[in-house]
Amino acid sequence: MQPQIVKQWTTQTLPSNWFKLQQADLKSVECLEETVKNIINQVRLNGDKALIEFAERFDKVKLTPQTLRVSAEEIKEAYSKVTQQQIDALQFMKQRVETYQRKQMQLESQTDIDGISINTVLYPLESVGCYVPGGQAAYPSTVVMTAVPAKVAGVKRIVVCSPSDAEGRVNALVLVASDICGVSEVYKVGGAQAVAALAYGTQTIKAVCKIVGPGSKYVTVAKVLVSTDVAIDMPAGPSEVLILADETADPMLVAFDMVSQAEHGVDSVTGLITTSEQLAEAVQKNLAEITISTERSEKISESLKKYGFIITCDSVDEMVELSNQFAPEHLEVMTKNAKDLSRKLVAGLILLGSYSPVALSDYASGTNHVLPTGTFARSFSALSVFDFSRRVSIVECSKSGLERVKDSIKVLTDTENLPNHYKAVNARFNNE
């Protein structure tokens, strides 16, 4: 008999606290806050000096104020360390994301109502900071997902912060992606200290108007803490995938998709909710077989054991209810009538059918993989060109248009005891 790789429950045996247990973003936030507050305060107080000290402590690298910023020579050298295939793949991803984002930009509108013209336009933010995780894995795709929408929106200053290795080098593919996407500045700074530097500035790093991008719990908490002073996109933390499946789903594909998300890190959340007990058992078996033989198996096994789960439900309605309670970052639907079912679901991104894995949306569909986690899909959307824009309504009213509405304005200004509001309107007609 194959061992259980992930926790397996039915709706009858489901622990009352299962939801809290599985939401990695919500764990230990309180104990992190004091640590992160201290990091932020140190950066605000000591600027570059604090960044250099934290780099030595956390990244084991000795930097100077002169080497915090990645130089043009380092970016040029990065191209020699990557293959043409990798460059082509990054350019392909950039083109897909750019095409989709330009389509969204077309949503500017003009409305005319009885002599009142309202034109809604988008103006770019002046500057943005893109956090790109580093460490054991490099994420050039995150550069594309954060910088390209900003570029399409027209942001002039796009800053990337990403931690360096012990030799003081940012991953070559991250640097190449930054160059391809038109990033203005790249800094060798990671963690909560990078968020603090982007929010408040240092002697070397000028503060930005908004901070975007995913990261560790430290990065997520830091973004939330600085959000009282600078705009952020969303609390995007460790990756999540939830798969809804019935008896028509292929258990091997379900298992592969769960494993693919577990390799993000040991705090990644991977779950299956199904109406088929047979599928649940088959997925457990496939998970055991894949995990033993695959690359990065130790990290994947730890992630699945900590935050992996399978729940069997008696009905599709139960499946939908549990899924919406979870409100996952990525939601795969492998069921009959998946498109109809998707209209009832809450998620950061919904992927329908056997040929729409998360990896497609991460790298090739043109959709953005910077998504809300930890139930924030209930109120946040995927990162897009709108996160880098200010929507402004420009109103122009004719004399006849104002005359049509002035009586209603009087009623409402009287109701709210703001008589001078109406006098400002009526003054335009007093001399007739």
Describe this structure in words.
By secondary structure, the chain is an alpha/beta fold. The chain has 3 domains: 7-26 and 238-369, Rossmann fold (3-Layer(aba) Sandwich); 47-232, Rossmann fold (3-Layer(aba) Sandwich), CATH 3.40.50.1980; 398-432. It has 17 helices and 14 strands. It has a 6-stranded parallel beta sheet with strand order 1-11-10-9-12-13, sandwiched between helices. The chain has a 5-stranded parallel beta sheet with strand order 6-5-4-7-8, sandwiched between helices. A 3-stranded antiparallel beta sheet has the order 2-3-14. β12 (330-334), α14 and β13 form a beta-alpha-beta unit. α2 crosses α8 and α4 (72-79) packs across α7. The longest helix has 22 residues, at 84-105. The chain is globular and about 90 Å long. The model has no long low-confidence stretch (mean pLDDT 93).
CATH architecture descriptor of the largest domain = 3-Layer(aba) Sandwich
Specify the CATH homologous superfamily of the largest domain. Answer: Nitrogenase molybdenum iron protein domain
**Per CATH, what is the topology of the largest domain?**
Rossmann fold
In one word, what is the shape? globular
Distance between the termini: 92 Å
User: Which percent range fits the helix content?
Assistant: 40-55%
Question: From the helix content, strand content and strand pairing, which structural class follows?
Answer: alpha/beta
